[in-house]
Amino acid sequence: MEPVLLFIVALSWATSTMAHEEVPLNTTTKLNLKNDEYLTEKIIPDIEFVVQKQLNDKKFETLNMFLVILKNSLIESGYRVTKDIPFTIIVPKVDTKSVDKDRLREFLLEHIIPGIAFQTFTDDDVYGNGNYHKLIFTKLQKDDEMQWFINGVKILRMEIINERMSVIFIDGLLGDKRSTTYSKRNIQETNRYNEPQRLEMKNTTKHEAMVAKDNKLSPLMTFLANMKTGTKVFQHFLSKSNISHYLNDVYYAVLIPTDNAFQRWHPIDWGFYPFSVHEFTESILRNHFIQLKTPLRMDDIKRIHGERRFKTLGGETVIFKSAPTPNINNVTILSDFALGNGNQVFLISEVLFVSEAIVSRLHQMHKDKETPPLLAFPWFGAQFLSHSFLALERDSRFTQITRWLNTAEIAPFVSGSNYTFFVPMDSAFEKLNYENLPDSVLASDEGIRMLLNHFVRGRLYDRDLRHDEVFETVGGGAIRVERTSAGNVTVNGAHIHEKEHFVYNLGTMFYIDSILYWDLVQGSAKPTTDTPSTTSTTTDAEPETARIPTTTTEETVEIQREKEIEPSLIEDDILFDEDITPRALPVRFYANTPK
User: Fold this and answer.
1) Distance (Å, rounded) from C-alpha 193 to C-alpha 185?
2) What is d(CA 180, CA 131) in angstroms, rounded to the nearest whole number?
3) What is the pLDDT of residue 74?
4) Is the pLDDT of residue 448 over 70?
5) Are the C-beta atoms of residues 372 and 270 closer than 8 Å to each other?
6) Cβ atoms of 141 and 118 closer than 8 Å
7) What pLDDT, on the 0 to 100 scale, is given for residue 63?
8) What is the mean predicted confidence (pLDDT) over 412-438?
9) Which range among 239-248, 269-278, 453-462, 565-574 shows the weakest confidence by mean pLDDT?
10) Residues 6 or more apart whose Cβ sits within 8 Å of residue 189
């Protein structure tokens, strides 16, 4: 969604929740701001004057709405509409749903500059915003490109509406993040793919806060936090690691691969990213730390004749050489920095101890981490189902289930990813004579419900199938797990013949020898002359229509969700870690034998 539109939504909140609050201007200290004379006035731009003839371009439609809501939000609080004073609106790149509603107007005023409609930027002038906070423009020459920043936040682009209105789009938000409650969550909480994340970091989790405060690592974490670019991937992985457990109170050198070094291993469109495997990433991090008795400086490396060897925390050997340029294991040292505690940081151009052969072996061991290609067919909105169908279609043991999937139209109920599919083999149909079921039965309400009872929301591994646990199915039923001491596993009496067939990182399939909830269509095995029309299910269909409690001939299973389990869904290690696929949660159950 266009950032301006998100900003508009925020302003609409301000209309109803904050129209009568006052945000005092901090005018007690003179800041010598270029627009100082306008900051003591409560003014907003006249929207009719600015908008009517100037914003015909579609890309400014949301800005028009922004100004309307701005007026409605602030005019009741005593803000005066003016036609004569220029304004600059700063549009932050942030989902405003994360903004604390109690501080929303403060957030909005932080991004409004009265008294100036910027045409160009200079790094000599200092301006103030609607909260009387100082705004400083700085420029950075990167390669042949000049980049501008406002209070350290990158400016993406500027649009000049007219001589009295300019709009600046920024890659972040303004304000004191330490004292305000609004902030942006850059790593998506709902991400289901094990792909490398955007280089900006998300809100600090409990574990990351502990890492940042660790006395052994705090100087390093402070250094990384102050680095504008180039080390964000390493910072992200380090914040999730347990590296401090391996550090003693001695000197250490840190070898930090640049973001581009990690990017080399990123699949272009789909494939396997080795750093989605937590254990592997942790070992790589340990092999980029060297404990030393005395600090190691760049000058020391330049004076090396021949080579000098060190052991990493992970047990690997690194070799420093001075020629032809300072390098580590023949990887160029790009720059070096001294930390406040006397330790040294070396930025390097490659990730050490990673090779194509290592990544290939890792891939074979972690098929569940591989990201998939996007499929337009057979069901664009159901990627797990689509990839599962194509995989089963290639196997001659699954002709019946693929016919069922083709007929039943369950894509709206199994949309997206993160599912476990218990797949009955053809032999399961044959022993019930269900291979003769007509399509009309498979596509009926009972047929759809029976099929949906083979799906569980969330990704289950074999280790999750513990004895006597029960999982709710998409169809509203339940499956009970039984595991013997020999390791044989059944679900509702169906034996699992093959376990953990990974459908990329979208979900898991288990192959079983019986059909679950087979009695839902009992008596329909004989061909029938009835040909009821198959109900076409659209993406607007309500999944609840398939979630009807069912009974079996063996037992009635009553499901009661455990409310006390729900908070675990927001634990940092599950919700925020893109390397962990959410697991289906067991439910409390009571089994009653029918009388």
Assistant:
1) 17
2) 13
3) 58
4) yes
5) yes
6) no
7) 58
8) 94
9) 565-574
10) 575, 576
CB 110 within 8 A of CB 104: no
Residue 482, pLDDT > 90, answer: yes
The string of DSSP letters for 132-166 reads: --EEEEEEEEETTEEEEEETTEEEEEEEEEETTEE
Q: How far, CA to CA in Å, does 415 sit from each of 410, 457, 540, 542?
A: 9, 10, 11, 12
Find the mean pLDDT for residues 581-592: 45
Contact 388, 509 (CB under 8 A): yes
Token pair recorded at residue 225:
């936090």
- Residue 227: per-residue pLDDT: 85
Is pLDDT above 50 for 231?
yes
Could you give phi then psi for residue 536, rounded to 5 degrees?
-80, 120
Entry pTM: 0.54
Phi, psi of 253 (to 5 degrees): -115, 140
The pLDDT score that the predictor gives to residue 118 is 81
- Spatial separation of the C-alpha atoms in residues 290 and 277, rounded to whole Å: 23
In this structure, which amino acid lies at residue 279? E
Contact present, 346 and 256 (Cβ < 8 Å): yes
**Residue located via tokens 């160029």:** 332
Give the Å distances, CA to CA, from 580 to 418, 420, 573.
Answer: 11, 15, 8
Strands (E), 80-233: 80-82, 87-91, 112-114, 126-128, 134-142, 145-150, 153-162, 165-170
Residue 47 CA, chain-centre distance (Å), reads 37
**Hey, which of 134-143, 167-176, 501-510, 574-583 has the most confident mean pLDDT?**
501-510
Is the pLDDT at 574 greater than 80? The verdict is no
Residue type, 212: A
- State the Cα–Cα distance between residues 470 and 478, nearest whole angstrom: 6
What pLDDT is recorded for position 511?
Answer: 98
Band of pLDDT at residue 77, cut at 50, 70 and 90: low
Question: Prior bond to 324 cis, omega within 30?
Answer: yes
**b/e code 296-310 from CB counts within 10 Å (16+ = b):** bebeebeeeeeeeee
Structure tokens at 66: 């922004």
Query: For 338, left (φ over 0), alpha (ψ -120 to 50), or beta?
Result: beta
| The length of the chain, given as a count of residues | 595
- The residue type found at 189 is E
- Give the CA distances from residue 398 to residues 392, 427, 450, in Å, rounded to whole numbers and listed in that order: 6, 9, 17
**What is the crossing angle of helices 399-408 and 445-452, to 10°?**
120
Segment 38-48 mean pLDDT: 72
* Residue 471: CB atoms within 10 Å: 25
The conformation of residue 371, written as its DSSP 8-state character, comes to: B
- Please give the torsion angle defined by the CA atoms of residues 505, 506, 512 and 514, in that order, rounded to the nearest 10 degrees: 180
Separation of alpha carbons 436 and 403, rounded Å: 11
What contacts 19, CB < 8 A, 6 or more positions away?
Answer: 73, 74, 76, 77
Q: Helices then strands (H, E): number in the chain?
A: 18, 25
- What contacts 66, CB < 8 A, 6 or more positions away? 4, 7, 8, 11, 89
Helices 383-393, 399-408: inter-axial angle, 10-degree rounding: 150
